[in-house]
Design a protein that fits this description.
234 residues; alpha/beta; 6-stranded mixed β-sheet; two-stranded parallel ribbon; 10 strands; 20% strand
Amino acid sequence: NVTFVTKIGNDLFGKQAIGVLKKEGVDIRNIVKDDKFPSGIALIIVNSIGENNIVVAPGSNGNLLAEDITPGLFTPGKFDILLLQLEIPLMTVEFTALTAAGNGLKVILNPAPAQILHDYLLKHTWLITPDEIEAEIITGIKVRNELSAEAAADVFLKKGVENVIITMGATGAYLKSKSFTGMVPGKSVTPIDTTAAGDVFNGALAVAIAEGKNLNEAPEFANTAAAISVTRLG
């Protein structure tokens, strides 16, 4: 059971988003319509080797407030995982993370686009999943290999995060948890479009954990999903 929480404008982009989510079987009852701002959009340019540049106009995403979040979402036992990223206001991220963690949900934070995070948010984060650039922006450590990934992971752990996965593209993902430390190998594919590879990784990771896979196994499943995603346009 997946529910998606966001804010959309009263426009074509918002209606299209609702249609896609319905088609995929996602619960849309917690999506809020915004009469003030248009739906957020992203303009994506993909080059000949599959790398992308994205320009984002946040629109209603930037207006998703704590009062827009249905309190019933945090009822103990209703959900297992809250997956967050940073394209909504940081105050809303902090509110939902602290409320969810206080009610027993595992909070997974994909810190994208990267920004400096308060320690009290990190203390309520069960798992953080930055890429190399995001890890560097937040920790100040350049992530270039397994050794530097471990150093960055240690910074997160000292700030109170329980588990860390640093995604490193085709190299794979570096995992540091109580039960496992080291690289989870990536999959070798020929990329066509890398757009949303990180989103796919995080979504698949949450699914794997919700289905009972442990943190040693879940990143392998997520790596496979992300690898498939970059071999397809869009």
